[in-house]
């Protein structure tokens, strides 16, 4: 296996490089434009009139264009697909709804409310710039994995709750409304099931088209039931009558000037709090996406640089009156699955999306609001990541160690419940971080690491407590630096027999480190103490987090019972 330090054997042709990126961009455009429209309509769902809904749809699409091109040209890892995202958009929408309930602002209509929202996006941008300055991107790798999963679960529940309110406020009779929503979700999960079935039979289908089929199926069902139960205005299509896309960012500075004259201390404080929460949540969402790309491509990012670039782009979005730009886990996964590996996928996706909005904006007039709600619900359900599913599966199985699994499950559930009950993802994250510190109260708390570098391998002896927050700082970064400095290194051997404690986040982090090492042609071995909690925790994670077969060679986790060695090839 060649290492990243060796020169490439031959340069691929231009067609071999561009064609996969173009196909991935086409797939992303077809699949994600429905998502951009749904997120945009979510952002302005509390504002009256079809123009507000159409404006929101346009804001969602143009935010994607800005995010895609900006991060493609400045991001440290590719393909990172950035644009509007569910959690940040829900907070953006909640802010507009809160401000719209205040007569002082509502009397001045749409410009005043959107001016306040743009100010909140500017606060979010400053928050991200500060997080980058204080190197919060690196600190995010120290947050326990169940906190991120619980946060995604809670944000998904909030998004579904928001759409349910939209559906219940719609005066279309319940049976037809449910038929439309059910048709969209059935198409989504039917496509996902079909992808899995085709894979088992040796065929390949693009999973990312599920949201596109959701939009089509829900729209078709809407027009069918339209003949039996004519809807009221609140349930009809998005509409673009009289809408001018060129006016989207026009007069934003004047809008802000007028808005400032309406603000008092209480409203400014509210905008600042929402903006800071949007900035923190957008940063977390982006860092999750970056971490996933690292794991899938075996590359290392510069997370603080990526936070800095997202902050700068969000300042631009605030000036243009757009939504927050956030790194997307689901869209980045879709790009990776479609074969994307470079920045060209994001650039081509942005150009195709822009062409669609410039030459096909009237297609919005055929999109029913209930179909957009179906897309949002399907997206929210897709936010339930594999890690949360693994924790849940281990909790209800007989697999040991019970205490380690239970600790991860309680943390996951607490973050999700606090997020859902308070309606604020920031509260859930704060609760998760606070609970994540509790394991440090019980000894042993210290992790001792001893590195011994040899000609062709590195021995790593660990003693004490191996918890997730210490893996990147004490293990991954030093070892990757050793590997870079010693191209002849062919193996890393971890001696875990002296460990007294471990958590599932640490196990997951080591699994990701294995993938990074294999990409560099370096084998990883573990010396484990038989029948210990550490061995049981590794077995639990390997049951659901085994790396892809294409990176493994012949064996997966072969065990030498004589020397108690677990080897990954």
TrEMBL record:
Species per Swiss-Prot/TrEMBL record: Paraburkholderia eburnea
Entry annotated with the keyword Lipid metabolism: no
GO CC annotations, alphabetized: membrane
InterPro entries in the cross-refs: Membrane-Transporter-like, SLC26A/SulP_dom
Protein name per the record: SulP family sulfate permease
Topology within the bilayer: Multi-pass membrane protein
Domain of life where this protein originates: Bacteria
Pfam families tied to this protein: Sulfate_transp
Transmembrane parts of this sequence: 52-74, 112-133, 145-164, 176-199, 211-229, 267-290, 311-330, 342-359, 404-422
Domain SLC26A/SulP transporter: 52-170, 264-399
């Amino acid at each position: 296996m060649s290492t990243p330090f060796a020169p490439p054997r031959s340069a691929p042709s231009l067609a071999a490089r561009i064609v996969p990126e173009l196909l991935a961009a086409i797939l992303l455009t077809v699949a994600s434009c429905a998502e951009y429209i749904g997120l945009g309509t979510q952002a302005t769902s509390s504002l009256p009139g079809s123009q507000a809904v159409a404006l929101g749809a346009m804001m969602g699409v143009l935010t994607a264009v800005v995010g895609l091109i900006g991060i493609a040209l400045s991001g440290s890892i590719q393909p990172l697909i950035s644009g509007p995202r569910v959690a940040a958009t829900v907070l953006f929408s909640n802010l507009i709804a809160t401000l719209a309930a205040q007569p002082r602002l509502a009397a001045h209509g749409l410009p005043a409310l959107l001016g306040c929202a743009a100010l909140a996006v500017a606060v979010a941008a400053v928050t991200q710039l500060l997080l980058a300055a204080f190197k919060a991107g690196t600190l995010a790798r120290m947050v326990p994995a169940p906190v991120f999963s619980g946060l995604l679960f809670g944000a998904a529940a909030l998004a579904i709750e928001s759409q349910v309110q939209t559906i219940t406020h719609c005066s279309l009779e319940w049976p037809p409304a449910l038929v439309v929503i059910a048709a969209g979700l059935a198409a989504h999960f039917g496509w996902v099931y079909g992808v899995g079935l085709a894979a088992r039979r040796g065929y390949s289908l693009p999973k990312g088209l599920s949201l596109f089929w959701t939009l089509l199926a829900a729209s078709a069902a809407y027009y069918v039931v339209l003949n039996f139960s004519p809807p009221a205005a609140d349930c009809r299509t998005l509409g673009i009558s009289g809408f001018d896309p060129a006016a989207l960012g026009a007069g934003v500075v004047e809008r802000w000037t007028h808005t400032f004259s309406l603000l008092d201390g209480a409203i400014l404080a509210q905008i600042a709090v929402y903006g800071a929460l949007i900035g923190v949540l957008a940063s977390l969402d982006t860092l999750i996406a970056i971490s996933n790309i690292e794991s899938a491509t075996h590359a290392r990012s510069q997370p603080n640089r990526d936070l800095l670039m997202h902050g700068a782009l969000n300042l631009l979005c605030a000036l243009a009156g757009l939504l927050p730009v956030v790194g997307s886990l689901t869209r980045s996964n879709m790009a990776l699955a479609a074969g994307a590996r470079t920045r060209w996928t994001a650039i081509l996706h942005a150009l195709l999306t822009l062409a669609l909005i410039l030459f096909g904006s009237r297609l919005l007039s055929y999109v029913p609001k209930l179909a957009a709600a179906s897309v949002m619900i399907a997206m929210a359900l897709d936010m339930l990541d594999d890690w949360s599913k693994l924790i849940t599966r281990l909790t209800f199985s007989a697999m040991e160690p019970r205490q380690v699994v239970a600790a991860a499950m309680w943390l996951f559930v607490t973050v999700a419940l606090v997020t859902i009950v308070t309606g604020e993802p920031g509260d859930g994250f704060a609760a998760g971080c606070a609970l994540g510190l509790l394991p440090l109260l019980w000894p042993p708390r210290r992790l001792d690491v001893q590195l011994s570098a040899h000609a062709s391998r590195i021995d790593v002896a660990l003693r004490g407590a191996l918890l997730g927050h210490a893996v990147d700082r004490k293990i991954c970064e030093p070892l990757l630096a050793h590997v870079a400095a010693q191209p002849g290194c062919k193996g890393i051997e971890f001696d875990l027999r002296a460990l007294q404690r471990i958590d599932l986040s640490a196990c997951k982090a080591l699994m990701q480190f294995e993938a990074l090492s294999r990409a560099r042609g370096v084998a990883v071995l573990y010396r484990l103490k038989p029948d210990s909690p550490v061995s049981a925790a590794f077995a639990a994670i390997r049951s659901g987090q085994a790396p892809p077969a294409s990176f493994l060679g012949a064996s997966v986790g072969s065990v030498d019972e004589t020397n108690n060695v677990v080897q990954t090839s």
